[in-house]
Specification:
The chain starts with a strand and ends in a 9-residue tail after the last helix. The chain is built from 14 helices and twelve strands. Strand 4, helix 4 and strand 5 form a beta-alpha-beta unit. It is an alpha/beta fold. The model has no long low-confidence stretch (mean pLDDT 93). A seven-stranded parallel β-sheet has the order 8-7-6-9-10-11-12, with helices on both faces. It is 37% helix and 15% strand. The chain has two domains: 114 residues, NAD(P)-binding Rossmann-like Domain (Rossmann fold, 3-Layer(aba) Sandwich), CATH 3.40.50; 157 residues, Rossmann fold, CATH 3.40.50.
Amino acid sequence: MKMLMFDFRDSEKEFFNTNDLKDFEITFINEPLNETTVINENTLNDTDIISVFTTSNLTKEVLSKFKNLRIVSTRSSAFEHIDLDYCTNHNIAVFNIEQYGRSSVAEYSTALILALIRNLLPAYYDMKEHTINHKNYEGRVLSSYTIGIIGCGAIGSAVAKIAHFFGMKVLIHSYMKNPELTGSCEFVSLDELLEKSDIITLHLPYNGENYHMISTEQFDKMKDGVYIVNTARGELLDIKALYDNLVKGKVLGAALDVLECEFISTYKGEMAAVMEETAQHCVETALITQKLFSMKNVIITPHIGYNTKESIDYILSETFNLIRDYIKGVNTNRVC
């Protein structure tokens, strides 16, 4: 089967060097797939499968160019970057990958927290510029903080265990309660978590109903000097409200590994080329993101929390297993 794999990264090459995938004819493309992508007509007609990451944007206009597309596989748990209505109406199967990156994302979230509270980046950049001022880098030990974890699935539970090991007081808001955490964590309402936490970290899936669940109203309930970490989904956090609260000092620091409208926020071409075809709220989000890049108390990384060899191998292995299962008539992890 002929397959186009977009968003292909150097970190994924080893998997293809060590695994036999002779039943697939794969073309690897480093760039994401969106409405500006140029593909020749023969390829558009011959492609059976598309594999993408969240930085691609599979609109109706993009998908309709592929005349014989059978399968779309996203190498992520999120699938909002894919027009599911179009896929359903044209009998295109869509698959996602779940339950990956538990340890990888939990460890990365902890690393971001440490980088924030120990002022790691300001110290690094000042060191490079030879403008050292030690009092600007004074931090706190983790055990002096209360951490609020929103979402208690596999990743949230792993973060809770790490935080407890460091001696932090751990508050959790979640629709489910992990019995493994009984005695080491306290399950509370969202309002109580917002009011009592020194650090708030997000670890829940985006389902459409929780869009901007952390916005102006929620920031107003938080402590002064709170830290915000998001390694879950960009849509959960109102980035304008975050920026406003960083400017006025309510939020002392933020670390974001995910962004709303990632396909435009991380776009490296001429912005004008995609502005006209992009939803206005995504344009505004991208502009605010550019402002955040100039703030020394903000860390933004390109969705790499999961990015370990173990997670990547699992994601790629599952991608091809799901496609093979579908061809055999099994619909595991089929979104639509």
